[in-house]
Specification:
The protein has five helices and no strands. By secondary structure, the protein is mainly α. Among the domains are: 32 residues, no CATH class; 32 residues. It is elongated and about 65 Å long.
């Protein structure tokens, strides 16, 4: 097959947020397209693939000690919210203030 001939369309499976699925539906109606595939193909045609640079926050693995009671609560919460333990810890750290609030100073452990 020459490099100018393209292969026939084949299914490509990937994960996207539900919000983008809704956007695909809206774009399908707004652009009068017949399928989600047509929306994706048009979006890719109009997107500059060569200049895309993903934004990635570098990760590093750390180890911390968590008491059994808190660990059990963490596992239960992860299961209930269909999330990983790591996701919950990251969310807790993202919301954790860098400096204690006035109420937080009174309840701090020594």
């Amino acid at each position: 097959m020459s490099p100018l001939k393209s292969k026939p369309a084949a299914p490509l499976t990937f994960d996207i947020p539900v919000s983008l699925i809704a956007k695909i539906s809206r774009a399908k109606r707004g652009h009068a397209l017949g399928s989600a595939s047509e929306v994706v193909r048009l979006a890719l045609e109009q997107f500059d693939l060569g200049s895309f640079r993903p934004v990635r926050d570098p990760h590093r693995q750390i180890s911390v000690r968590i008491a059994g009671k808190q660990r059990a609560a963490l596992r239960l919460a992860a299961k209930r919210s269909d999330a990983s333990v790591g996701e919950l810890i990251r969310a807790a750290l993202e919301r954790f203030p860098e400096k204690p609030t006035r109420a937080g100073k009174a309840g701090r452990r020594k």
